[in-house]
Design brief:
There is one protein chain. About 25% of the residues are buried. The longest helix has about 35 residues. The protein has 5 helices and no strands. The chain has one domain.
Length: about 120
Amino acid sequence: MSMDSQTQMPDSNVPQRLLTLPNSTAVLVLGILSIVLCCCFGLTGLALGIIALVLADKDEKLYRANPLMYDQGSYKNLQAGKICAIIGTCFSGLTFLYITVKALVFGAPFWSSFTDAMNKLKQM
């Protein structure tokens, strides 16, 4: 018997279990939260969006290195999370910029009315 006939080839009919990208779910959750929390002075959504984008970039490099090793569904979750993170980061940046400019232009009256509104929300 030759050496070629002794080596066993994997059966092509048996489905192989693909790996999920390690941070795909985290990126999706952080991307959605960055959109939802963009109204909290813009800082919370901005931080979550940036974290999601960094994690998405890391996982995208893993996927591009060996695309046949990872599940297509987890890659789609990663892409959706990345899009949500980009949107959330933009909205949060605009909110933060708006609050900063408004505070610089109007100064103390803006902050006192803003803190009054926040105190009323806390009392509810």
